Amino acid sequence: MKIFFIADAHLRHRNNIGYDRLLQFLDSLKGQADHLYILGDFFDFWFSDQGDVYPDFQDMIGKLVEVKESGVCVHILEGNHDFALRKYFGEKLAMEVIPDCAVVTLDGKKLYLAHGDLVDTEDTSYLFLRKILRSKTFSWFKEQLPSSFWWKVARGSSMASKRWIGESQERLAEKMYAFSLRKFEEGFDAVILAHCHEPLLRTVELDGTERVFVTLGDWIDHFSYLILEKGQFNLFFYKLSF
Question: Does domain 2-237 have CATH number 3.40.630.190?
Answer without folding.
Answer: no
